[in-house]
Each structure stands twice: as structure tokens, then as C-alpha cells.
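Human: We require from you a standard protein entry with sequence in single-letter code and fold as C-alpha cells, and nothing else.

Assistant:
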Amino acid sequence: MLKLAKTFTASAVLAIAVAAPAQSAFMTWTTDLPTVDNGVLSPTTTVGTVYENLTTSVKNKYRSPWQGTLLDGTGSYTSVQKSSYASYILDKGYSSVEFMWGSVDNYNGLEFYYQGSWVDALYGDDAALDGVNKGLGFIVASVITNGIFDEVRFTSGSNAFEYANLTVSAVPLPAALPLYGAGLALIGFIGWRKRRKAAGIAT
């Protein structure tokens, strides 16, 4: 029985490892235009200069991600200025974020934390963004992190990081995980009963 328990435990650990997030952030992007302005929630905290609810552009300061689209002049966005960041502290752990990223620049950065500890990061000079026309237009970015996060920071090393339509997605629980947990609990219970019965016979 002990051998069976060890085998089952090893199998469960392997399956959980396979189901765990990949060991590096994964990013995809598109230039498909969002048709609706969903707005951007106010950051939980800000450091430095962060402009919210902008709808227009100011040369050499910030550029609307909606510029050149049907929502130019009305689409709202947030702009993080030089040496600043906007932090969103979330209610639970998440694994992905999607947003409209305006005029992608190498000094733009996303940083992810869980309970105050660094989890992952993505910067404008990441290889996944090599095909982007930097400093112009927009992309809709989808990022899956290495591990769960409960805080995301939008950082900028210069003017500016502009973003809109920010959404986060929860970590999906692998469907088989509860079965593995139940199986391990059952094996533990059987072992406990066997030991209890053997102890009763010995006395």
C-alpha cells in the first residue's frame, strides 16, 4: 500500500507540475481595433505623475492610444509619465492581463507582484514586441504571467506609458486537481485506518 501511495503521489505531483503556468511570461498582441471604450479603473496607488481619464494628446507629453481611430478625442486612457508608475492591487490572484497599449516604447514596463513579492515583468523592448511599430499607433496586448499576481504596475522611464481598456483574468483551476486532492486524502485515510487497526491488534 505504501508503494501505491508513493506512486500515486508522484503521479499527482507530476500532473500538477504539467498543469502549472509556463516558466516565462507569454505575450501576444494584435492591432485589431477595439470598438468600445471600457475606460480604465483608477490605480490603487501612484508614484510620480500619472494622468487619468485623458481623451486627447499633448505633443512630447502623452499620445492617445485612440489617435487615428473612430474614438479619437473621446476614448479615455491613462498616461504614466517619466520615472512614475500606476499600481493596481487586486482582490485575489490573477494570471493574465489584457489592455490597449498606445505608442509602445522600449521604456514602458509591466511589473507583476504577489503579496509584495516580484513575480514577472514585461518591457517594451521584449522580443515579443519586435514586430511592433514603436512610438506609433496602438496594440491590444495579452500577457500571461509566470505565476499568479495580485498587483500589476504600469511603469515608465520616460514620457510616457499610455493604456486603455484594462482587464485581468483569474487563474483557472485545472479540472483534475480536485480529483488528485481527493485521491491523496483517501489514500491517507486508508493508511491511517490500517495503522490504527494494526495498533489495536498489537495491544
